[in-house]
Amino acid sequence: MARRTFFSFHYEPDVWRAWNVRNAWVVRPSEQDDVGFFDSSVVEATKRTGKDQLKTFLRNGLHNTSVTCVLAGTNTWQRPWVRYEIAQSVLRGNGLLTVGIHGVRDANGLTSEVGADPLSAMGVYRANDSGNLYLAEWQSGKWVKYSDYGLPIAPSALWFPAPTTADVVPFSRHAMRYDFSAQNGRENIAGWIELAAQMVGR
């Protein structure tokens, strides 16, 4: 079945790579009926102004999607809007996966350095005082409460057992990471997306 997939990426350095990856399935028309994917990415969001407007745009982009594919370049893990997209994806129950695109050549034919997994910089923990679950992010060498969503999250939002302590569980522990270039992403990305959906029961 086709999966509506949201692609999260660092726009300025990686938009060329991201477009190549997201369009990889188009070259295999025989599979489009069964495996295509559709997305609402941050590309158009760059034309918007204002933090609240951008948040609304990104939430709307995630509407009716079942998987969020984080296209990771060198510094994607540090980008606040990528973190916002990951947080909102968790809240809506999307499947999550990371696909490294550092090995995909940009418009100038250049590759980039591999970066950290963005899903390793976001996670969840249980507060000692209230027992509630909260999102966390990696900032300045330590875990802190996620700043753009401070409300408790329901255990049902997670696709893995909820943490029982204040130790942060990174989402990367329960999501797959792939390398688009090294692992033949053009042939395999549709299967990676399908697996991410199945892992969360979508």
From TrEMBL:
The lineage of its organism: Bacteria, Pseudomonadati, Pseudomonadota, Gammaproteobacteria, Lysobacterales. It comes from Luteibacter sahnii. Residues 6-105 form the Thoeris protein ThsB TIR-like domain. This is TIR domain-containing protein. InterPro entries: ThsB__TIR-like_domain, ThsB_TIR-like_sf.
